[in-house]
Amino acid sequence: MIIKLFESKIKYLIVGLFLGIFITTLLPKLFIKSTWEKNKQQIDLANIKNEYNFIEYSQWPPFLTDPTFDLTLWRKHCWINQISLPTQDTKLYYKKNYTAYNVCKDVISLINSIYNMKTNIAKVEYPETFAQKIRKIFNYDKTLYAKALEQELYFVMNKYTFEHTVYNPLRGRRPIQPPEVPIEQYLNETIEKTSQNCDLCNYQNMTAIDSLGRMENRYAYSAANAFKFDQWHSMFMPKQHDITKLTFEELKDIFTLAWKWFQTVHKQSPSHRFPTLLWDSLPHGGASQVHPHIHATLHSDHYYGQFESIRFASERYYREYINISKHGKKNFFRTIQDIHMAFNLTISFNGITVLIPITSRKEYDIIVLAENFDERFIKVIYQIIQGYFNKLKQFSFSSCLYLPPLSPNQDDSGLTPVYYRIIPRGQISSLLSEISSLDLLSIHNVNKLPADLFAEIITWFQEI
Ligand SMILES: *[C@@H]1O[C@H](CO)[C@@H](O)[C@H](O)[C@H]1NC(C)=O
Ligand SMILES: *[C@@H]1O[C@H](CO)[C@@H](O)[C@H](O)[C@H]1NC(C)=O
Ligand SMILES: *[C@@H]1O[C@H](CO)[C@@H](O)[C@H](O)[C@H]1NC(C)=O
Ligand SMILES: *[C@@H]1O[C@H](CO)[C@@H](O)[C@H](O)[C@H]1NC(C)=O
Ligand SMILES: *[C@@H]1O[C@H](CO)[C@@H](O)[C@H](O)[C@H]1NC(C)=O
Ligand SMILES: [Zn+2]
């Protein structure tokens, strides 16, 4: 009995021993082996390709600046509210019988093909003492106070580019604090002080030159950036220092030189096809020098990410709608222009359209689309900048100009229009930054409705 018991104990011990060895040594090895196999696979994948495969762009219908629908009919039969943005409640924005007209259906389907729009009401309650403060902020205006209790928020999202803006017009009604230092005084002092020892004023001796040498005409010159952000990167400057005194002739000379530089670079390196001009004004706008200077770059393979994402959106739009007869002849940029025309947010010159985007990034965000880059286009840009300076007192801004891809062999695929965008960068003398996590990381917040912004810029343009 005792021996038998002893024997079975030994059996269990032996089984236990082997199990133990298995669990502690072999099992982990099996696990490690399988994860190692996985890692090995990943490493192989990583070795295969580390470059994003750019899609083949299609040949889109050309961008033209005339509307693809009858604007007069649209205004007559469809749209009643020229002030606000359309929302879920169609009764507020469209005429009674609008569904009876094809033009209404067509344009509304265009709007919906690109934008999501919705209005929300955010309710707020204020304790009495705070309510008194709010009433005072709004100058005891009862309508405004009522709006403060039920705030209208307008959300607009471009479904292709994911540009996303929330408008809260009430925020724009708050009184504006005057800047700590008066704008004129700040400008005068900053320009005086920096002009005394300005490298860009003494460009012959104090600026770098790239392999193409210096380019120069009557009012402007080129210089290499001492610290480049792209392989082909140059700068174009007026010879004089004061941005507030910039003349049209100077701006024209700057752009003319930059255009010449693009052609020269592209000839030397045909794969560099994607021209970009970037222009920041004054330190509050991100400019490192007070002397006006425009960056020009020519990138290969594609545009810089932010514009390439718009170009790619345009391709997706084209592919999604290519089989739908109503949209089949549409160009994404032209559709965006159509929609803004329908909302009365565009000013058109022959071949050039100025628009206030419904996905604005800031108040007075302005986009110009054009069929060609020419002197008239430069004139429009010049008038916008004069409007910023003289009408809005906005002296710091960031702006970009994307020119259509340069192409030696008439390759028209993915052909973007001339695209200019300018955005004010806040009060020049303010210590406050005008951008926050909203703009950089989430959604753009604009506190005036596009129609209000439009009403202000419409007077800036003389016949061109
Ligand atoms: C609505 O449209 C129909 C057909 O176009 C027309 O007969 C009718 O009078 C219109 N009604 C109103 C209120 O405009
Ligand atoms: C600054 O103000 C002084 C005095 O009014 C004036 O002489 C000077 O030209 C101004 N400078 C600039 C850059 O506007
Ligand atoms: C600066 O450049 C100009 C023109 O090239 C030249 O005449 C002048 O002597 C230079 N000045 C200095 C200090 O190098
Ligand atoms: C459009 O039509 C073509 C040819 O009939 C087809 O191959 C393609 O998948 C269609 N595209 C879409 C987005 O439906
Ligand atoms: C378009 O907007 C401008 C500026 O607010 C205004 O003057 C004009 O009457 C509007 N046009 C229409 C058709 O509503
Ligand atoms: Zn200078």
Description of the molecule:
This is Galactose-1-phosphate uridylyltransferase. The chain crosses the membrane at residues 12-32. It comes from Rotaria sordida. InterPro entries: HIT-like_sf. There is one protein chain. The chain has a single domain (62-464), classed as HIT family, subunit A, CATH 3.30.428. The mean pLDDT is 88. Strands 4-5-7-6-11-12-10-9-8 form a 9-stranded antiparallel sheet, with helices on both faces. The protein has a 4-stranded mixed sheet with strand order 1-2-3-13. It is globular and about 75 Å long. It has 464 residues and is of the alpha+beta class. The longest helix has 47 residues, at 2-48. It contains 14 helices and 13 strands. The chain is 40% helix and 17% strand. Strand 2 (150-158) and strand 3 form a beta hairpin. Residues 96-97, 100 line the site of one 2-acetamido-2-deoxy-beta-D-glucopyranose.
